[in-house]
Design brief:
77 residues, globular, 64% helix, single chain, mainly alpha
Length: 77
């Protein structure tokens, strides 16, 4: 999970890591503040379940991430 990587590799706290992820989403135009807050809540609860493979181009990765974030099955309930 991205939060864990930021904690391990950058020494960030969980809150700092999630703040960074949400800020990046906002800069990239992924959702709005309400969506970002819901995503943060889902991350805190461990509900995010999508796996994104990063073995291609940046564009491929961005497309896969965009699709996963739109897909309800990426989140468990």
């Amino acid at each position: 999970m991205a939060v864990q990587r930021l904690k391990d590799n950058r020494g960030l706290t969980k809150e700092e890591a999630m703040t960074r992820i949400i800020a990046q989403q906002k800069r990239r135009g992924i959702g709005n503040t309400e969506d970002a807050n819901k995503f943060k809540d889902d991350m805190e609860q461990g509900d995010v379940t999508a796996v994104i493979t990063n073995d291609g181009t940046l564009e491929t990765l961005q497309a896969a991430l965009g699709e996963a974030l739109k897909n309800p099955s990426s989140f468990k309930r």
